[in-house]
Amino acid sequence: LTVARRTGLLRLLLHGEFLYGDKAYIGQFPFICPHKGRSANLTPGQQLWNFFFNPLRTRVENSLLRIHKFQCLNVQWRHDIDMHRTAFGVCAQIAAIDIKINPIYV
């Protein structure tokens, strides 16, 4: 949430667009999240929401794993901070190409 606010991402969202978040973001607009709790304790509507939401979450996590391969998120950045955005963008583009070549299926 902090990153989304600091980077201006929230201002880029179009009307009706949301961000996927995990259970830590429940109640934080504009994040949509799965319902907390054991399936047996959820209403049928909440169970249905989680049923459709979980595969989307898995796709996002798999996409981020591809970006993590470059270690750009795992090590301390030792270059000019202005280059960080560019370096991350390059890693994200390479991951996007990899996803086109090797689609993520859930």
What can you tell me about this protein's structure?
It is a single chain. The protein has 106 residues and is mainly α. It is built from four helices and two strands, in the order ααββαα. It has helices spanning 2-7, 9-12, 44-68, 81-101, and strands at 19-20, 31-32. It has a two-stranded parallel ribbon with strand order 1-2. Helix 3 (44-68) crosses helix 4. The chain is globular. The mean pLDDT is 78.
Write a concise synopsis of the structure shown.
The chain is mainly alpha-helical and 106 residues long. The chain is built from 4 helices and 2 strands; from the N terminus they run ααββαα.
**Proportion of beta-strand residues:** under 5%
Helical segment tally? Answer: 4
Helix content: 40-55%
The neighbouring-strand order within the major sheet is 1-2
Uncertain stretches of 5 or more adjacent residues: none
| Cα-to-Cα separation, first versus last residue | 26 Å
Alpha carbon gyration radius: 16 Å
**Number of DSSP strand runs:** 2
Order of helices and strands: HHEEHH
Structural class: mainly alpha
What is the fold's blueprint, element by element?
Elements: H1 2-7, H2 9-12, E1 19-20, E2 31-32, H3 44-68, H4 81-101
Parallel strand pairs: 1-2
Helix pairs in contact: 3-4
